[in-house]
Amino acid sequence: MSGTKNDDRGIFIGERDGLKEVKPDQKRLAPVVVKESFKTGLGLWPKTNIEFRGAAFPSGGDATIDGLVTIPNILSEFNNRLVGVSHGMGTRDQLPETQLSVAESGATTDKMPEQAKELVRRLKNLVEVDYTQHWIMVIVTIGTEEVCSRCTSPNFTALTNAIDILQAHLPRAFVVLLGPIHVSFPHKLKGNLLKSRCECSREASNTLMEQLSADWKTAFEKLQEHVDTNPFRGCPYFRNTANAHGCQLLSLSEAKEKELLLGVDGKVLKKRRRTPERLYTIAISIVGIAFFVVCTLGTVFYQKSKQGDHGRFEIPNEAQKKFEEAQKEEEKALLTRQMTRGMSVNEGLQKSTRRLTGEEA
């Protein structure tokens, strides 16, 4: 894989020897779009807040070229087997992932790496075509909304990271960079109609838009130079899809994701997740927590057992308890009756004795 630049803000990713042979009918995958709302179809119809992605110029495929001029409809005149064309209305997440446009309304250069990763993910999930065997046209439209909303220069680091992601994962791609729209006055070519329409630039000086345009142009030129200086297949200089099996070079972010460390002897080591110190700390923490729980629960259960009226393993039975109480009451009543009878017998004996004593007298 290699990169080369041209004068039309385009970046080729693929074999240099094969660039001259690229033709419209060789593009099996429809142009895929990365960026802002101008390429999502937002605002194509007045008084609507709907993304008409099927009618967007870079990726829309609704109707035909006779009724709707878009890049996919133009390419369809040469190849009617395009994959990934946008159709219908809705946001990126509402439409099927087989539609490869990952543009988002209101997006800025800060979100370009995330969109590049999403594009690569969708390409890898395609079942209709092997993206590694076909040329892909990636259209990056960025800047118009960012300039109009913030009046700032692009995030060059994010731009570079996004292009690096595409170059690392797409063997054959033609990346087209489209910067901010510059609509000038007929009588003043350096003037920009967006100045009076954007909130951040209305009160600014007349040279603001010129400076912003120059900054964006410089960023795109540096981006082309960045791609052009990448080696072809050399390892360990740059790892790509062509040498991924034999090249073990990783970027710093990739090494962090895989938890790799550089050893003392220069070898790459796998970061151990559980060091002895960490294991000891975990073990001591577990023992401490267990001891605290046992002491707390033991104290609670001991205090409750002291207040109970039956043993720990004795199951109280309310019916049995009532029966025992009734039995006690019955025994008490029986004892009382027996005592009453005994007293009556004693009184009878005393009376009989008195009678006998009186008769003898």
- Helix and strand pattern: EEEHHEHHEHHEEHH
Overall body shape: elongated
CATH architectural name of the largest domain? 3-Layer(aba) Sandwich
According to CATH, the fold-level topology of the largest domain is Rossmann fold
How many distinct folded domains? Answer: 2
Instruction: Quickly name the level 1 CATH class of the largest domain.
Output: Alpha Beta
End-to-end gap: 151 Å
- Percent in strands: 5-15%
Keywords: Membrane, Transmembrane, Transmembrane helix
GO molecular function, one term: phospholipase activity
InterPro entries: GDSL, PLB1
Protein name: GDSL-like protein
Keywords:
single chain, alpha/beta, Rossmann fold, 2 domains, two-stranded antiparallel sheet
